[in-house]
Design goal:
With 396 residues, the protein is of the alpha+beta class. 40% of the residues lie in helices and 19% in strands.
């Protein structure tokens, strides 16, 4: 059994009073975050450092002013959490792990508020937030772990107007029974996944299926006058509902696929793809985004850790498609349009299946020997692949 922190997300239907209270809280969270960011930015121009404790003191002073007295009407817990999130953002920035923190936009930023244990009450399966008299009407689509007590509760509203509550709990996960199976994954567009076993899983193309509906909703939105009018807001929610439908279906498909791969195999091997660079190609950007390769990798990573599996990531420069899995020859060029090719040794390769098999061989070498996979960008000067080359002799 492995103890992990796990978030359980549910939809809920707030009353009018609860919706109004949460909307005020979202606005105050955004206001406090932006004001604290502005204060820290100004201090930085003066070569001064401002930390969380100082911004917390500022928050107390802001509440006492007549102009910002409304900050005291909502729970203080989400406001303090906003300052902690800003502190984490600056820590990541100074650690060169992220960009400089940006201001939150009223229209574009995520509407959410985070409550710690002092800001909510969870008893007998009912969750009541601070400043609210009634518990939230949660749709319990699945039960919480037995005896679980949420340590953090995050309430959010998406662009489609749906309300969600996410509860972070301690959970005990039983590792999956050990197996000898090993599989490699070659990601693609036509076939979302090609396995080293030869199986190909067709790309559902969720965005393409709803493309006509999305285009119609976007045309209707473009006709509405810009501003805060009710008609434009209604059209914007309609577009958001189509996007939400696409995202939900894609997420559901990826969860089922990754869970199957992790449960059936002890070792899963994938490539380290640079998705960020791929989407810069305007011809492929839409298809690459719809495939959600990054989301699939994230799911494989945490599910492998949960269930006691091994996930091996092969170097992005490994020529999995160009390398002949039989003789080891690397083909000089292999355009994307070529899906089947014949090696000099006479072997006919399916591009995707051959790549998956090569990824598996390289991943197993990493797993067993602990050695990295050489990039092999091009054939060597000697005419042999990098895998076949012997180290040069040292002169005595």
């Amino acid at each position: 059994m492995k103890r992990v922190k796990r978030a359980f997300r549910y939809r809920f239907c707030p009353t009018d009073a609860q919706a109004a209270e949460l909307s005020r809280t979202f606005g105050c969270v955004r206001k406090v975050y932006n004001m604290a960011l502005d204060a820290r930015t100004e201090a930085w121009t003066r070569q001064e450092r401002v930390d969380y404790n100082q911004t917390s003191t500022m928050l107390t002073a802001w509440k006492r002013t007549e102009e910002l007295a409304y900050l005291g009407e909502v729970s203080s817990v989400p406001l303090q959490q906003a300052l902690r999130h800003l502190q984490v953002a600056f820590t990541n920035f100074f650690g060169k792990r992220s960009r400089y923190p940006r201001f939150k936009s009223r229209k574009k930023s995520r509407r959410s508020a985070e409550y710690t244990t002092s800001g909510f009450r969870f008893r007998e399966g009912k969750l009541t937030l601070a400043k609210m008299a009634e518990p939230l009407d949660i749709v319990w689509s699945r039960p919480l772990p037995e005896g679980a007590k949420p340590s953090t509760v995050t309430v959010s509203q998406d662009a489609a107007g749906r309300w969600f509550v996410s509860m972070l709990c301690d959970d005990m996960i039983t590792p999956a029974p050990p197996t000898r199976g090993a599989v490699a994954i070659d990601l693609g567009i036509t076939s979302l996944v090609t396995l080293s076993t030869g199986e190909k899983i067709t790309n559902p193309r969720h965005e393409r299926k709803d493309r006509a509906r999305l285009a119609k909703a976007q045309r209707e939105l473009s006709r509405k006058a810009k501003g805060d009018g009710a008609n434009r807001a209604k059209a914007r929610r309609k577009v958001a509902r189509v996007h939400a439908r696409i995202a939900d279906r894609r997420r559901d498909f990826l969860h089922k696929l990754t869970t199957r791969l992790v449960r059936e195999n002890q070792t899963v091997v994938i490539e380290d793809l640079t998705v960020g660079n791929m989407v810069k190609n305007h011809t492929l950007a839409r298809a690459v985004t719809d495939a959600a390769w990054t989301g699939m990798r994230t799911m494989l990573e945490y599910k492998s850790a949960w269930y006691g599996r091994e996930l091996v990531v092969v170097d992005r420069w490994f020529p999995s498609s160009k390398l002949c899995g039989v003789c080891g020859t690397i083909r000089a060029k292999l355009p994307l349009a070529v899906r089947t090719w014949t090696c000099d040794c006479g072997t006919v390769h399916d591009r995707d299946v051959n790549a998956a098999k090569n990824i598996l061989a390289a991943g197993l070498a990493v797993s067993v020997c602990g050695a990295g996979v050489r990039p092999q960008r091009e054939p060597s000067r000697t005419g042999q692949s990098a895998m076949k080359q012997k180290p040069p002799r040292r002169e005595p």
